[in-house]
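Entry 12.
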Amino acid sequence: MFKTQQDRLEKDSIGFHKIVSINAYQNISYQFQNNSLQKIEKLQYDKRNFVVSTIDSKDFISSIVEVSVNIPPEDIQDAIELKAYDDLGLDQAVEYIIRYIEIPGRKTDKMRSFHVFVAEPEVVHEVFNPVREQVKYIDCIYPKPYLIQNLYEKEILEAYGVQGYLYFQKEDAFLALFKDGEYIYSKSLKYSFENIYERFCELYGERVDEAAFYEMLQTKV
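Predicted 3D structure (C-alpha cells):
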C-alpha cells in the first residue's frame, strides 16, 4: 500500500540482507533470513533490510474506481484520487493517503478498473511512526486482506472459483473475497474478538476474565 521508493532503489542496488515483518499494532516483529523465521526482541535500523508491515482493515476503506483508458499514465494517479474523493464522498479538506492497484480482468475498450485503498494520514502516522522511529523506514505497508493473496501465490491455497474468508483478531476482523486466487473485495467487520468480549460481558451482566474468555473461544469455537 505504501512504498518508500528512494529506500527501495538504494537497497535494490546492494541486495536485501533479510526481510523484517512488523505487527505495528501489537509491537511484534519477525525476521526471515536463510529460510529461517525468527522473532525479533528489539528492532534495529539496517538499510539492507526489507521492512514490511500491514494495516488493519478497520483503518482503511477499499473500493473499486473506474477511469477512462484515454488518461495518460502520468495523470492516472490524479484521476484515480479525484474519482475516489467523488465516489467515496471523502472530506475535501483532508489529504487522504490513497493507493491503488489495477484489475486487469475488468479492463474494457473504454474503462480501466482499480482497487483503491484509502487511509487517514493521522491514523497511519499514529500506528506506524513508533516503528519508523526504530527502523527509519517501512518499505511496504499492505492492507491486511492481502496476506491471503500470498497464500495463493505460494500455492498453499488452491486458486479456483470464488472463495471467502472471515478473519478475526483481537482488535480487527474482516471479510475477504477472492476469485481464482485474485483479490476482489474486502470489508471491515465490527466484531473483532475484543468487541465480542465486550458484548459477551454486557449480556452476561458482569466482567469475566479476558484471558479465560479468549481461551474459551480457542477451545469451543
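Annotation: DSSP finds six helices and twelve strands in the chain. The two ends are 33 Å apart (CA to CA).
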